Amino acid sequence: MTAFKTLGQFIIERQKDFPYAKGELSRLLRDIGIAAKIVNREINKAGLVDILGDAGSSNIQGESQKKLDIYANEQFIAALRSGGECCIVVSEENDEYLVIDSDISNEANYVVALDPLDGSSNIDVNVGVGTIFSIYRRKSDTGKHSTNEDVLQLGTEQVAAGYVIYGSSTMLVYTTGKGVNGFTLDPSIGEFCLSHPNMTVPAAGTIYSINEGNYIHFPDGVKKYIKYCQVEDPDTNRPYTSRYTGSMVADIHRTLIKGGIFIYPPTTGAKKGKLRLIYECNPMAYIIEQAGGKASDGYKRIMEIEVRELHQRSSIFIGSMDMVLKAEEFMSSFSPKLFVKSFEGEVKIQ
Ligand SMILES: O=P(O)(O)OC[C@H]1O[C@](O)(COP(=O)(O)O)[C@@H](O)[C@@H]1O
Ligand SMILES: [Mg+2]
Ligand SMILES: [Mg+2]
């Protein structure tokens, strides 16, 4: 029989690494793993059951919600509620934060931020999607309702973060600040098993990942960096390869394994960027930093950005250390202003 280690066994073994080794964080991670398996089961039969398509509603960001966005949100919240270790949930799919107000959870110590289903526009076409989670310790006293100080914490305060990728296989990747480990779901036994121990992102990648269709709306630093990626230079393995799925989880997972840079910059239409700081950028930044990479908004470390709002957006430049440093060089050397050039050559500063 092949020896394998399940996520549950691994979490118990590593419990002593956690800052507060009482088993609560271990239970929380286990609950997230359970919800991920339920969501995975539903995603795998999408098409057979009526779970594809729009739900007919939209979230606070005005994005139309898919049925699976709502399903995944409900499953993760239900697992966190019944687990009893989470006092408050921030989710992309809920306008406000959700206080888990049972007797047990008044004593609960952890705040969980969630993108229950990332890349949901890809669901209907069978491209990999994911779940992103970020875990903080509450700041307010237990027994009290949680407050803004619990939910608007800096990324550096995260005690754990991870993602699940529902792709050609399903994987859960997480960090508690002691490196990054990846677990593949073995469908024959229904368990996540350790498959990628101590993951590290190669320092020098050769893949850049950005929605180039928005090129005309990018700041000059990004445009010049893209041109740099495309120039031939055998010494630095350029031109680089371009890859972009439209699912952040899939693009970051590839970046973690193969190296590269993923960029979602500010654009004329989304001046602060599109992706959300609390449940997309910060958890991915924590994972990539723990794997030896770098995450910045083009100028500043993502995890040190002040968090003022629940659904705050940020630009992001994340991945291999050398590539992110180079992109930052371009950002600081060229104008941060966003220009739109019409086909007639007219230039309008936004
Ligand atoms: O279509 P665009 O503008 O390139 O945006 C793609 C990005 O938007 C997202 O789909 C946003 O995530 P959600 O599906 O959770 O809203 C990311 O996964 C992805 O990187
Ligand atoms: Mg997302
Ligand atoms: Mg989402």
From TrEMBL:
InterPro entries reported for this sequence: FBPase_C_dom, FBPase_class-1, FBPase_N, FBPtase, Fructose_bisphosphatase_AS
Binding site for Mg(2+) 2: D115, D118, E280
Fructose-1-6-bisphosphatase class 1 C-terminal domain residues: 201-331
UniProt-annotated location(s): Cytoplasm
Gene3D superfamilies: 3.40.190.80, Fructose-1,6-Bisphosphatase, subunit A, domain 1
Residues in Fructose-1-6-bisphosphatase class I N-terminal domain copies: 5-197
Cofactor binding note of this UniProt entry: Binds 2 magnesium ions per subunit.
Amino acids binding substrate: D118, G119, S120, S121, N211, Y244, K274
Gene Ontology BP terms: fructose 1,6-bisphosphate metabolic process; fructose 6-phosphate metabolic process; fructose metabolic process; gluconeogenesis; sucrose biosynthetic process
Record-level GO cellular component terms: cytosol
Enzyme class label: hydrolase
Cofactor dependency: Mg(2+)
Record key words, sorted: Carbohydrate metabolism, Cytoplasm, Hydrolase, Magnesium, Metal-binding
Pathway: Carbohydrate biosynthesis; Calvin cycle
GO molecular function, one term: magnesium ion binding
Enzyme Commission number(s) of this protein: 3.1.3.11
Binding residues annotated for Mg(2+) 1, in chain numbering: E92, D115, L117
Subunit: Homotetramer.
Family: Belongs to the FBPase class 1 family.
Identification of the protein by name: Fructose-1,6-bisphosphatase class 1
Species the sequence originates in: Mucilaginibacter gossypii
Phylogenetic lineage: Bacteria, Pseudomonadati, Bacteroidota, Sphingobacteriia, Sphingobacteriales
Gene from which this protein is expressed: fbp
